Amino acid sequence: MKHRITILGNGNMAFAIATGLSLVYDLEIVGRNIDKLDSFEKKLGIKIKKTLYDDFNGCDKDIVLCVKPANLKDIQYFFSAKINTLYSVLAGTKIEQLKQYIDAKHYIRTMPNLAANVQKSMTTLTGDLICKDNAINIFSAIGYTLWVDSEKELDIATALAGSGPAFLALIAEALTDGAVKQGLKRTDAMTLMRGLFLGFGSIIQDIHPALLKDAVMSPGGTTAAGYAQLEKNGARDAFISAVQAAYKKTQ
Ligand SMILES: NC(=O)c1ccc[n+]([C@@H]2O[C@H](COP(=O)([O-])OP(=O)(O)OC[C@H]3O[C@@H](n4cnc5c(N)ncnc54)[C@H](OP(=O)(O)O)[C@@H]3O)[C@@H](O)[C@H]2O)c1
Question: Is pLDDT of 2 > 90?
Fold first, then answer.
């Protein structure tokens, strides 16, 4: 029999996580609207246990919390018994805060990213060491995992890998706009950008970014001309500052 995981919430992240977990685990989804739970099940394409908050009993369950941080105070009343392990995906919500609202034997904080939708999330995890292996197993169902030793590191990871898809989306859009500005058709520019990201995603796995850049940049060539403009316009500092601002926001 498959182990059951309960997911609280039926939004975007809940769906992305459920998609990956459904391949390995039996799922219970808890929400506040039965129509939304029905369409969640239909979209997922497999049978799940659907539970409304009023009928929810968390006793001894492993629960993945996928609501917004501000919803903690509303859902706390539905936890009448101690749960087993709480896996929280809530950005910027410390384990100490989770403890104030939900009574669990163990607490894990996780930070998946948007690529969970395609089972390629880069998920950071931290929390009770005793649950480390279980946590890694569960979140491996939605992609890659990295266990870190502190909540501070998880918050920094949030700024890099959690917000990262939005930062890279800005680069993707800007490069495409640059090509359109020079006269390339928008559809062709989009095709090139997508192919670029696909190939880059593979290459960067095995090479340091600085070496990759050196390999592309010929003396006095086109890449060197473009690269100089990025440095002149502070692109490097802009991204370092973006990670700093995102990390500060998690605090
Ligand atoms: N999206 C990302 O890329 C991402 C990445 C990492 C972490 N996260 C974290 O994932 C969590 C969920 O984000 P999301 O993008 O999935 O948001 P979302 O799509 O807006 O889903 C929010 C969920 O919270 C429920 N909810 C809202 N108000 C509620 C209340 N008062 N009581 C109980 N449930 C309530 C919603 O239920 P209804 O459908 O009934 O409104 C919905 O199931 C957030 O804490 C976020 O920090 C998101």
Answer: no
Question: What is the tens place of the pLDDT at every residue in 35-56?
Answer: 999 999 999 999 999 999 999 9
In a domain, 181, yes or no: yes
For the CA of 91, the closest atom of ligand 1 is 47
What the block records as the tokens of 247 is: 């990390």
Does the residue 141 lie in any domain? yes
Same domain, 45 and 129: yes
Query: Residue 1: pLDDT band by 50, 70, 90 thresholds?
Result: confident
State the residue range of the domain holding 181: 164-250
Q: Does pLDDT of 23 surpass 90?
A: no
CB of 14 shorter than 6 A to ligand 1: yes
Share of the chain above pLDDT 90, in %: 91
Helices 222-232 and 235-250: crossing angle in degrees, nearest 10, is 50
Residues 40 and 132 in one domain: yes
- Probe residue for ligand 1, chosen from 7, 8, 13 as the CB with the greatest number of ligand atoms within 8 Å: 13
Q: Look at residue 155 and tell me if it is in a domain.
A: no
Q: Whose CA is nearest to atom 3 of ligand 1?
A: 114
Q: Residues 26, 138: contact at Cβ < 8 Å?
A: no
Same domain, residue pair 122 and 172: no
What is the model's pTM?
0.90
